[in-house]
Amino acid sequence: MRVVGYDPYLSPENATRLGIEKLELDELLARADFITLHTPLTDATRNIISADALNKTKKGVRIVNCARGGLVDELAMAAALKSGHVAGAAFDVFEVEPATDNVLFGFDNVIATPHLGASTTEAQEKVALQVAEQMADYLMKGAVTNALNMASVSAEEALILKPYMALGGLLGSFLGQVEADGITAVVIEFDGKAAALNPEPVVATTLAGLLGPAMASVNMVNAAAVASSNGIAVSTVRHDRQCDYETLLRVTVSHKSGDRTIAGTLVGGNKPRIVEVQHIAVESDFPPHLLYLRNYDKPGFIGDLGSLCGKHGINIATFHLGRREAGGEAIALVEIDGGLPKTMLPEIRALDQVVRADALHFALDI
Predict the structure, then answer these.
(1) Most buried in the list 50, 173, 226, 240, measured by CB within 10 Å?
(2) Catalytic residue flag (residue 361)
(3) For 33-49, how does the pLDDT look when each residue is reduced to its tens digit (9 = 90+)?
């Protein structure tokens, strides 16, 4: 069988990939021996198989409608069946449903059934098996198949995407925990090897990380919908260029007061790592407890912060610094052992060199 198709939204390239020769509707009507319908009922598709359309078909054509009632003009179809122009038809949808009486009933060359193909015992068993198999694939391999509200991911893709999804979630979580006045847009950039990825799962985890601190019910399944409903424009950019890192993700959040950005990469064993904050190079892991400080690059800052931590019994595990230029704006990412007392953050913010300070927390199993 050679398959031809009419779809105003199908590109010629996708048609070729699917093994379909794309035609205009009149060409399809003239060439087809069997015509099947696969479209919703809209103003544009109502009576798409009309008397005029039937007159353009081959004598002996057979027509199948298991899509929606109203796509076929039933009176015109009955006339074509009576004349022998249409050799046979099969319908499980009708203009008026439930179809207790219909002009097509009674023809020897018409098969008519209720629209219940998915409700047979055999179909229900197959659906139950498919659900179990697909859930097992997700839990064991990370593969997502036939999901209505998130991107499909093959088992092969899941293995590659998993560390990037973790990185995106952590980058989003970093920005989500830093206070911002009304997020309006999010841009996620894929650089280096990341540019070849399926972006949707990474976008989902990034948005979940970003919105999660303020909205406990957000997860990777509903994050894109939540962002849209809150008027947040989400876009992605793939860079076809050489990158300073083998692979890189950058997340930029626009809010009423300006922009905030962070970039990260994957290091040995696909471990997520921060490499840039606010376009300032500074490297750090995502520890359970992290102080994010923006400060002026002035003598005494490190000593004052260390003294304050010592006063409160807070041990500094790692200390990462970056700056734009000598004496200018700087970033400090300070890993501490244990949580920060609530009374301490205002004291850090009160230090002369500090512009802002945030206490961030990262789950180890993200």
Answers:
(1) 173
(2) no
(3) 999 999 999 999 999 99
